[in-house]
Design a protein that fits this description.
Low-confidence stretches: none
Distance between the termini: 40 Å
Order of helices and strands: EEEEEEEEEEE
Strand content: over 45%
Number of helices: 0
Number of strands: 11
């Protein structure tokens, strides 16, 4: 059974940091591109960051470049999102996602999804 379980969300003040984790099971993690998306009420799910199967390439949406860092540990089957200098516009439910093969920032092609973790940034 495939599972992606996110953790690490919470309430933080503007300028603070959080580290999200996503633990994977039930599929060959090291073969999959992993990504973080986020969503706020009434809006489409937005690509935040992605990392290729062996961690050699990372991708970010412009609004988080220089503040967020995605990483993965294939031995632990876990992907991380370090979020620094958070601002209220980063408030959202953050989802972990996986797809076999190469990079994509398109939610519709992601194969597996977690249930999300809420990040709230207060001003």
């Amino acid at each position: 059974q495939v599972q992606l379980v996110e953790s690490g969300g919470g309430l933080v003040q503007a300028g603070g940091s959080l580290r999200l984790s996503c633990a994977a099971s039930g599929f060959t993690f090291s073969n999959f591109f992993m990504a973080w998306f986020r969503q706020t009420p009434g809006k489409e799910r937005e690509f935040v960051a992605g990392i290729n199967a062996y961690g050699g390439n990372a991708y970010y949406t412009d609004s988080v470049k220089g503040r967020f860092t995605i990483s993965r540990d294939n031995t632990k089957k876990t992907v991380y999102l370090q979020m620094n200098n958070l601002n209220p516009e980063d408030t959202a439910v953050y989802y972990c996602a996986a797809k076999w093969g190469a990079y994509s920032d398109y939610a519709a092609v992601m194969r597996f999804w977690g249930n999300g973790t809420l990040v709230t940034v207060s001003s």
